[in-house]
Amino acid sequence: MKKIWNKFYDKLNTTFGFFVLVLVLFWIKTFIAYHTDFTLGADTSIQHFILALNPLPTALLLFGIALYFRGKVAYWLMMIVDFLQSTWLFANILYYREFSDFLSFSIVKGSGSVDNNLSKSIMGIMHPSDVLLVYLDIIILIILLITKLIKIDQRPLKKRFALTITGLSLALMMTDYGLSVHDRSGLLTRTFDNNYIVKYLGLNEYAAFSAYQTYHQDTARKRANKQDLNEVLQYLKENPAGDNVQYFGKEKGKNVFIFHLESFQQFLIDYKYKGREVTPNINAFYHDKNTLSFDNFFHQVAQGKTSDAEMMLENSLYGLPTGSAMINYGTQNTFQAAPAILDQHGYTTAAMHGDVPSFWNRNNTYKSWGYENFFSKSFFPDSNNPNYNVGYGLKDKIFLRDAAEYIQQLPQPFYCKLITVTNHYPYLLGKEDASFPETNTGDNTVDGYVVTAHYLDQAFGEFINYLKKTGLYNNSMIVVYGDHYGISNNHRPAIAKLLHKKSVNNYDLAMFQKVPFMIHAPGLKGGIDHTYGGEIDVLPTLMDLLGIKTQGKYMMLGQDLLSKQRNQIVPFRNGDFVTPQYTKFGNDIYDTKTGRKLSLNDSQKKQVDKIQDHVNKVLNLSDKIMTGDLLRFYHPKGFKKVKKSDYDYSVKDTKKRLRKENEKNHTSLEDKNHGHSTLNDYVTDAVELKHH
User: Fold this and answer.
1) Rounded to 5 degrees, what are φ and ψ at 503?
2) Residue 691 above 60 pLDDT?
């Protein structure tokens, strides 16, 4: 035994022996992370083999660089490469835990626009075991080198040996790719969930693919030309939604409120815990006889999360497969968005958000979309008080109360979007604000969700009461929607407990992506509508209700939810989909009505393939419009191109402009109230304002 150990120890004291040790330790921790921190869905024996193989090719290639050097340089190069690869693994473990996705170069590149308050989220996500798993081997190896328990071999390796390692890594890459494409055809050419890329090719290869996607997005604009529009125009011509006769123009001339429920999922509607409704005010609004509520409405966001939801809401264009379209394209692209369209139909347009204006690049994107006003953190006097903020901005009760100050000054009719933030991960709320008990799923990430959702609901109720008292309720179309999931698919046991199930499968997770969508107006024929749709369909629906014709004029990829002819295909950004008949999640197809997993017959396979082709087509066309900035070549009749230089979101300029407009129009709520403020009509139980 001693001889074996001595022999092994002697090998460790060679450059190649240390190289093998570093490689094996890195492979082990990556393999453990694949199985404990990511949900990659390896089902077959070949997929398990590929999953075991895929950390090795790039690890061999990158660690192998050190073999071209000698002595200390070679050893420390290996340690530096190990640290960099491990940090990439660590960052993805944290990101995946919350977002069920992997970091992309677009996200990293745009992190400056979304890093506000992220430290709280990261601390909430991180477990001590993460650091132990990822960095323990590096720490031990450094100690062994410093204490000379492992001695540095000064002898140079032959160059052909290093070249052999490089060749072996490239051969393994080709083998891995060949096996992967054989098992999953079109892996890099079709729209796939990033889980597939990592499962088949590995985390480092995914990083390279993500970098290529980012480069492709950055160069697509230069290659685009006017002829690229033809494919989009042909698609729109072949896929009309048909006229919405019953509802078209019913809300013409009304004010429009877009109420953005942060991280709010459909399951919360009518959900009770310990005999209490989590969201009684939103429930009452949902069931109101003048509210059209959709119970098969899905979020369709990817890595852009809230920014993707806004992109679809305002433009009927999808977000990107990686990164955020608002960050990557919001500043320079041409858009024909809801604020610009409505502005040219006599509306005052405003967005309100109790956080910094640069978050998700809103300060630039909103100008591109034609928002006349953007009321961000600097407009709200309470925003500088740390006790008034939580997570990603002003607490909802305070934000909505402060927003009323500016709502009453907007010339009518207006289009006003209000973005709430309190119901945002990590679902933090002080005891003085929390008036609902945490759930007992045993998952700390999940258990606070109902607490912040209840607080959001209370804030919503206060806001609706204000609209009723001031008369805005009777002269407005109020649109309420959830932007994306609040609980990611990585919390399956907790999700099962919340849904009162023993366990959840992929069908349950697909249905868990439903978010609320409601449209309320006095006299509107309401009810629960079972139509299948998603965020891409919001804009054409609202435009039809307002009597603004969009079909055949604007490039909107969604369809009016109230049209009887709509196709009811709901594409997800990763290429999965839901229809009234079929639900696709990863490799699995389910019967949407029953949730039963299907083994497709020939007829069903043809139907599913046809739906998949449609999904791939519309996602691809959206990407072409976005990355090629194709709308710069398109000039809808009667639409004036947005000039970003026309907009100034400074506090001074905005207040001056509102004064001038009100002196001219006298249509604002404040003017209607004989120049008096209506803030006395706003009643809130926000504890901070009670102490004010």
Assistant:
1) -155, 165
2) no
pTM for the structure as a whole = 0.81
pLDDT, mean of residues 92-114: 69
Please tell me whether residue 232 adopts helix, strand or coil conformation: helix
Phi-psi group of 666: left, alpha or beta (phi > 0 → left; psi -120 to 50 → alpha; rest → beta): left
| Structure-token pair, residue 207 | 């990083």
657, with CB counted inside 10 A (0-12, 13-18, 19+), is middle
- Please check if 306 is assigned to a binding site: yes
Residue 126 · residue 94 · CB < 8 Å? yes
Nearest to 60 by CA among 96, 16, 117: 16
Nearest to 592 by CA among 579, 605, 604: 579
pLDDT mean over 183-192: 62
**Residues 354, 357, 358, 364, CA torsion sign:** positive
- Measure CA 327 to chain center: 12
454 annotated as ligand-binding: no
Side-chain-side CA neighbours of residue 607 (13 Å): 16
User: Is 306 an annotated catalytic residue?
Assistant: yes
Q: Which one, of 360, 357, 316, lies nearest residue 337 by Cα?
A: 316
Task: Tell whether 441 is in a known binding site.
Answer: no
Which tokens is 587 given?
Answer: 């490799």
**pLDDT tens by residue, 275-308:** 999 999 999 999 999 999 999 999 999 988 999 9
> Tokens 């509802």, residue?
247
* pLDDT at position 118 over 60: no
* Annotated catalytic residue within 214, 279, 291, 306: 306
